[in-house]
Amino acid sequence: MPVVLGAIADDFTGATDLCNTLVRRGMKTVQLIDVPAAAAPAADAEAVVIALKSRTIAASEAVAMSLAALDWLKDAGARQILFKYCSTFDSTDAGNIGPVADALLAALGSDFTLYCPAFPALGRTIFKGYLFVGDVLLSESGMKDHPLTPMRDPSLVRVLQRQTKGKVGLVQHAAMAQGPAGIAAAFAQLRAAGYRHAIVDAVADADLDAIGEAAADLPLITGGSGIALGLPANFRRAGLIGDGGGADRLPKIGGKAAVLSGSCSQATLAQLAHMRERAPVFAIDPLAAAAGADVAGQALAWAADRLGTAPICFAATAPPDQVAAVQQKLGRERGGALIEGVMAEIARGLVSVGVRRLVIAGGETAGAVVQALGVTGLRIGRQIDPGVPWTVSLPTSADQPPLALALKSGNFGAPDFFTRAFAALEEATA
Ligand code: ADP
């Protein structure tokens, strides 16, 4: 069956999060990294999510990238487009959510869409158009101090209205009581009154299911990963996708196993401590790398007689005081880029000696490694812990072996994640 849902995500880990939601609701899903030059997705993908890095770039560039993604998705057969952004509506008054949605609407020949970043399981809820993070308004949450997109106005109607010339309205939570038909009626009312954009309240997954059902005929939907909860059922009712069985099955990937850990967040520190008790760990020394030592070469030599089907680990992961010391000597960006470069080189070396199963910790680290390995697409499988699924790389050429990859953003995962992930892979693959 062809692709029915096409999604455009404004960052990499957000794209994976969306894929994970779709797979859990029984849609066979592929994540593509940037807009592909040509290659087609895995033949049986029902949903394709294109991961862009467009959240904080200039609005005009974000629009151009998103339109290119739209063209590709339409060519692949997508009947409905989902624009995915962060559950905290990360954006500035200059964009990019409003401008990208406006451009997608125009390109789709449509005049109305909805906005619902709610993600109740993570504490993001919307009531009367106000976004809450846990028990506080967005403007009182940590997001008020975000370095790139500080969110100081909790009213999504006002935030979005500053990003678009079209009228922004609100579908209040009261409409949920009337179910999907009531929500669809609220959309129709707003549309008739000349509104182009509707913020939609949602405080529970049941609301998101109902909103998804009400949005079945909208060419464009926008929101966080939660807005996808209700969509697979629409396609299934219409007979456009399978029954959901086996959506999370991945091909079996044998071969050697390793963990690359470049995240220094609390969860990763605990996971590494757990790993140290159970497997060999090579510590990557950023200052030695800065002084010109061939740290990747040393790591690969160390690995030579340790590699096997039981995972070994390479870690730059360090507690805050050590990170601060490195950043003081090298600078934050230079230090980070240097370590990511070492990680990427180690990853290439590992694959060249038969490693096929990799867990990578850290969003930036994962991005650098995936790029270095030439991976352009991922088939999404079963989740290991919330938000972190196993994936298998899509083939780009005949001589590129498929890799099983688990890309964990810093704060995700239980303390035994590194070791449990590999056991979970056995169950997740056919
Ligand atoms: P997270 O998902 O936890 O934010 P990232 O990989 O996105 O993890 O970011 C972590 C950053 O910290 C990367 O740029 C990485 O190279 C850098 N880093 C890793 N180890 C160290 C260290 N010991 N000292 C300084 N920076 C480090």
Features:
single chain; 430 residues; alpha/beta; Rossmann fold; Molybdenum Cofactor Biosythetic Enzyme, Chain A; 2 domains; 15-stranded mixed sheet; three-stranded antiparallel sheet; 14 helices; 18 strands; 37% helix; binds adenosine-5'-diphosphate
Helix content estimate? 25-40%
Report the bound ligands by name, code or SMILES: adenosine-5'-diphosphate
Structural class comes to alpha/beta
Q: Give a short account of the largest sheet.
A: 15 strands, mixed
Tally the helices.
14
CATH topology of the largest domain: Rossmann fold
Q: What share of residues are in beta strands?
A: 15-25%
- What separation lies between the terminal Cα atoms? 21 Å
Per CATH, the architecture of the largest domain is 3-Layer(aba) Sandwich
In the sheet with the most strands, the strands line up as 9-10-5-11-4-1-3-2-16-17-18-15-12-14-13
What is the CATH C level class of the largest domain, in words?
Answer: Alpha Beta
CATH superfamily of the largest domain: Putative sugar-binding, N-terminal domain
Which outline best applies?
globular
Descriptive overview:
The protein is 37% helix and 21% strand. It folds into two domains: 5-237, Rossmann fold, CATH 3.40.50; 256-428, Molybdenum Cofactor Biosythetic Enzyme, Chain A (3-Layer(aba) Sandwich). It has a 15-stranded mixed sheet, with helices on both faces. A three-stranded antiparallel sheet has the order 6-7-8, with no helix packed on it. The radius of gyration is 22 Å and the shape is globular. It is of the alpha/beta class and 430 residues long. Helix 10 runs parallel beside helix 12 and helix 11 (320-330) packs across helix 12 (332-352). Strand 7 and strand 8 form a beta hairpin. The chain has 14 helices and 18 strands. Adenosine-5'-diphosphate (ADP) is lined by residues 262-265, 268, 286, 316-318, 322-323, 326-327, 335-336, 339-340, 362-365, 409-410.
